[in-house]
Amino acid sequence: MSPSDDYFLSSSRDRTVRMWSLQQAGAVAQLELPAAAEGDPFAAFDSTGLVFGVTATMAAGQGHYIHLYDARNYTGGAFAELKVTTAQLEKELTPQMARSEWTSMKFNASGNQILVTGKNGLVLTLDGYEGTVQRSFSGKGTTSACWTTDDKTILTGADDGTISCWNADTGSVIRKLEGGNSGSISWVGVNPKYSMFASCDTNTAMW
For residues 72 and 61, what is the distance between their CA atoms, to the nearest angstrom? Predict the structure, then answer.
């Protein structure tokens, strides 16, 4: 969902990303993945709603594409293409983690970093302009992650019901939260207007 208006994005297994408006029926726009991309795409707006990113897997498991679009001029195509290669990821991660399937992408509030989560507990930050790996927050059992609104902390939920609070700059764990959820955390998210966040398993906990 765009943070600035009534538009939202959906990604599909037919290799398309669509933009929709709550004010009208039917998709406002439809974007096709590049021919060299494989797998299912996913997309996200940045914190301003002026830019959105679309990511998909490179052919033959060589890495991932992130295409950045101007939300006001998306018909002109992506204004930037970031390539995050498997070789680059293997310099920072174990081979298994480097080849893990990505499952989500989130921009920080400043728009200069991208948080990526994936299978096998993959969590890492990328430079929002070049796509280079900044830091890994990956861990066994990690299921979801998000930024705090000040960009200083990354929250990760785990399959044991705990939440880890990481320093985004140093990669160290500041605090571990317990007791809000008893099962595997499927989602964690911060309210951008208030100093609170939510975590979900079969129940929703507010922090």
Answer: 32
Of 64, 29, 72, 27, the C-alpha closest to 48 is: 72
> What pTM was computed for the model?
0.93
Hey, what amino acid is at 170? Answer: T
DSSP helix, strand, coil percent of the chain (3-state; round to 5): 10, 50, 45
What is the side-by-side strand order in the sheet with 102-107? 102-107, 113-118, 123-127, 133-136
* Burial grade of 167 (CB within 10 A; 0-12, 13-18, 19 or more): middle
Quote the CA–CA distance of 90 and 74 in Å, as a whole number. 33
Q: Which residues contact 183 (CB under 8 A, 6 or more apart)?
A: 161, 201, 202
Instruction: Give the C-alpha separation, 122 to 136, whole Å.
Output: 8
Q: Which residue has the tokens 């070049």?
A: 130
Q: In the chain, where does DSSP find H-type helix?
A: 86-90, 95-98
Residue with tokens 């129940």: 203
- How far, CA to CA in Å, does 24 sit from each of 7, 30, 69, 143, 198? 10, 15, 22, 35, 30
Element (H, E) at 85: strand 80-85
Q: What is the pLDDT of residues 77-128, one digit of tens each?
A: 899 999 999 999 999 999 999 999 999 999 999 999 999 999 999 999 999 9
pLDDT tens-digit map of 134-159: 999 988 899 999 999 999 999 999 99
Residue with tokens 């490179």: 58
